[in-house]
Amino acid sequence: MLSLFTGAGGLDIGLERAGLSTIAALETDEDAKAVLRDNRPGWRLVGDGNVETADRWLTPRGLGLEVGELEVLAGGPPCQPFSKAAQWSSSARGGMMDRRSACVYGMLSLLETFLPHALLIENVSGFLNGRGSAGPLIKERLRGINARHGTHYQLASSVVDAADHGIPQHRRRAIAIAYRDDGLEPRLPEPTHSDAPVRAWDVLADLSSDEKPEPHGRWAGLLPSVPEGRNYLYLTARGGGEELFGWRTRFWSFLLKLAKDRPSWTLPASPGPSTGPFHWENRPLSVWEQMRLQSFPDEWHIDRPFRVGRRLVGNATPPLLAELLGRCLVRDLGLGTPEARSRTLLERPTLLWSHRTDVPPPCPPLPVPTEFREHIGSHEAHPGEGLGPAPRAPRVTGETARTSA
Asked: Catalytic site residues?
């Protein structure tokens, strides 16, 4: 596998568990590269890690391969241009009009350079569909590659919820696979945990860590007044608690808390002080706890400052999801020896957690603290769909990245 946008290694860890090995990795972030060196010193971090320009210097021969010998080209391009969350920020999502999406062109150029057996992409749900998505561009470029090289790349894609596959986190991701050879059709993994998801308690109950980040910010003292599994909506006229906010006038993750008996909500990479999900102990999640909720193995260490670690984990592909995708590649492409392939496909996924039977009941919420009681009163609700604040318009800086590529 040639790994692009490797980050903290989530995609690579899972594909490694499925039997694939990383021949080289491209990553620009120095903190992410330090994590990769700490955990996998044998992985080769090549060049400056910039996927956008790598086709100018990275060749199959440079990795000891011939054109067509690479089995998998895999990566999750930076998601900010396609993220729903970004449309409320000053750098609103612009899709393929966003300068940061230039790396998508670089990824496709490397595909044409190496002509691997498979292309695997993981990204936010808006990456392939919707306004400004990369889907049409990728399909058009694949048609051009096929015409020039006699290949048969056809993009098969789906949006999955990681929780349906045993990851203890609701995380909607777009998965796309394209196979080079004619007659091969990707078969994405079937949901296995839709009715019995792995829960936050299943993966966090046995953690005994001194790292318990302190909550901060204007509203931190309200966390004990929000029930487990709820958010600020509890403290509105329709929520059941005392009314401190208007109904649906804040973003969903405002004062959002985990429930022990449910999967986590999506872990953000750079949350504000009031952005959850928070631990049921009324505090931010530690990096280790976030890694468990992302399905990282315990032996994988991210020894970086808290904010850096949280960003790296929040941006990562859940390794268990990657392991399941890797098994699909191994099966469809017939990789490895028959014995190793059979063993990989029949064994229980290595990163899947078991359910615990000792889930305690939720702690009841506490009364609103004195310092917040001045906010109790009548508050206007959101006026309705399409009538409230609108997302920011995309801000495009410079020319659209390599639009003629």
From this structure: 79
Structure tokens at 277: 């999900």
298-338 pLDDT, tens digit each: 999 999 999 999 999 999 999 999 999 999 999 999 999 99
How crowded is residue 172: how many other Cβ atoms within 10 Å of its Cβ? 15
- Residue 130 DSSP one-character state: S
Kindly give, in sequence order, each residue whose CB lies less than 8 Å from that of residue 337, ignoring residues fewer than 6 positions away: none
Which pTM was predicted?
Answer: 0.91
Q: Please report, for residues 163, 242, 360, 377, 392, the alpha-carbon distance to residue 228 in angstroms, rounded to integers and kept in the order given.
A: 19, 16, 12, 23, 32
- Longest CA–CA span in the chain (Å) reads 71
Give the closest residue to 245 by CA, choosing from 272, 219, 279, 278: 219
Class of domain 2-196+318-346: alpha beta
What's the CA angle centered on 215, arms 201 and 291, to 5 degrees?
40
φ, ψ (nearest 5 deg) of residue 327: -65, -35
Model pLDDT for residues 72-83, shown as the tens digit of each residue? 999 999 855 544
Tokens read off for 256 = 């959002």
